[in-house]
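Why does residue order matter? Because the sequence determines the fold. Keep that principle in mind as you read this record.
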Amino acid sequence: MPTHRLPLWRYESRRAGWAAGVAPPAALLVTTAMALLAGSGGAGRDQVAQLLLTGLEAILPLTVGMAAVTIVARDGCRELQLSLPARYAGTLGRRLGVLALAGAVCAVTFSAGLWLSGWWTGPSILASPLVWAPPMLWLTGLTVLVGMLGRSVVLATSMVCALWLGEQLFAQSFVGLEWTRPFFLFTTSRVGVGEDWLTNRLALIGSGLLFVAVVVLLLRRPHSLLTEEEE
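Structure:
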């Protein structure tokens, strides 16, 4: 990265807020605490390892998605930004990029730690990004998209949390139907790395990129970023 760009990224990191830096490690710290409590409560090694993998595939992506929509909503200078020559899509992209980088660094570090300590139960460690990256992309893209369409953080977070919880509670139903199986977020931790695992991961990546593309298109319509009060 050119040195003259560094101050801009530092500024955007500050504007992204504390959630961008705190949310990803907090999610994995909570996961580790839950695993320690489960282990001390008599849970077997397999159950503890499953919980650690669930934190990487389920808890971290949900946390990053919730943090992403707060980054979009917390900017109090949208009207000013939209009046400037620079595209707000680039500004917002950099701020979300800070969050994505924090999430990726935490996920890679956590995965490496599990592998080195013998607690890794996912696919090959080289394929470990496919455990957390597809659901993170999918949930983040959907949350930001719903937040922009509904112009409401509450709507976006409530809808995505309900979907996340629904997939957890009715996992067998999602896995049992052909048309929902490719979009099941928790295949690694709930089903395992089978013959449909890679298809599931690619489907999540493809649909997640579609959400991102729609968000980029919406950013070309400035009023889509403004709430009724701001308009």
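The chain is about 75% helix and 0% strand.
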